[in-house]
Amino acid sequence: MLAPERSSQNRELASDIVRFTRQSARRYKRSRTSWGDLFVDAYSWGLGIGVSLTIAASFVFALRNEIADRSTTTNSIIRAQWLILPESPLWTSVTFAALLVISNLARKLGPMTVNGAESIWWLTLPVDRRPMVLPPFVRKVALTAAGSAVIYLPFSMVAGIDRAPLDHVLASLTFGAAGAMAVVLAALQQLALLGSRLGRATTATVLLACSVLPAWSSSPLPTALVAVAAVGLLAFVVPRAGQVRGDDLVRGGAVAGHASASLFMMESNEVLRALGGTRKTVDGGRAAQFYARPVRGPFRALIRADVVAFLRLNPPLMPPILWLAACIAVLLVEGGLPEFAQLAVIMISGCATASGMGVVARKTALVPELDALLPLHPALVRTSRALMPCLAMALWMAVLSGLLVALGAANPWLIGVGALTGVGMGAGTLRAATRTPPDWTAPPVETPFGPVPRAQLGSLMRGLDVTILAMVPLLLALYLGSVPMSIVIIQAVFSACIFLVVVLSRAKRI
Fold it and tell me: What is the chain's alpha carbon radius of gyration, rounded to the nearest angstrom?
């Protein structure tokens, strides 16, 4: 009889502590904010969101009409006989990939977390933790469900042009419930109720089943099924929310705080460091054989060190393979997607893959003073840093170009153009890793979208600009359907100039 009473008292005490903290924080924020500032912020955000939604809706309807009026012989960059992939498996795969991304982000950020201040004194108190971690977790689930439903609606309108408006709404609600289920499944893994491998396999199986249901949303039954399953899993997790280990709560809070602060400060490198900091690296293995080889000269020693670091940090192979498969799958859709959509997917895939190859450059950019101590010219140091990303991207682009040649997109010269493109894209990863911090002293520029931080966006685009520029000749060759010698020369000049500019330029320090 005493145990339930003591548990109830601890839970009430924890609720009082949380309530007092929240109320104090709200009073402090209200004391430092005026109604005029709130009105200006609300007006600016409302105007910007309204204009953005209008432009996005126009783009969605234009793309929808373009897909509806497409022609098999004129709306693809590959030969018509290769357009054999039905649309339904492609859209289901995209839905499944989106749910996996939500689940992985939830696991890295931690569905149930505490921030730094809370971890100092909340976790040390001998009280029930459930009132401390449960309300933020429920808000995350609700926000994920709402955001997933809103984001999936335009995708549903593009993927299913022959469906009724009510079907699109039901499909969006189904995906929103599936997104909430992905977060709850991540919470189950955080509670360690299942083993690591069994938990991931169970999550992948459940999300795969959920990814099929939005395509069947011609009736409310799939939506109700996923919603009931999500609520049932949430009801199973809620009573056990206080059983999460303290170190896992602190880890998730640290990662989430690091990522959110980096997003607010527009530091994409810090976002990648925050999300990639929990990934276990493989020590030795592929890099062990390089240690025993003799080396002469500081430049060769630095090259070997960067090669070893690249192999030891072990960039994951699965994301580049998946992006490669995504490029090919989009090209094989029956009927052929519009050319600009196919080229856009290739460009996005290339930029995403290149970003994953800059792990060593991002880590060494944290302490640039160490590079200054090397007995080498700074240009040679940056050349060594860019070597492995350039080689990796040259190989990835050559493989992609070879597959495109096999599908009849262009002549075999496209493989050489792709390899040269990879050199420029690899140099872009170094430029992105060594970008200067955003200059927050520069005032924003007023636009129809509201105030736009032009200087900060310029810093954010550093690296991505040259990566896209390096792909322009390749995309032009795909659009033309052939690779004249002028394209090869232009691509070689573009990649060489980008590499030299990145290697010879020095980042300005603020």
Answer: 26
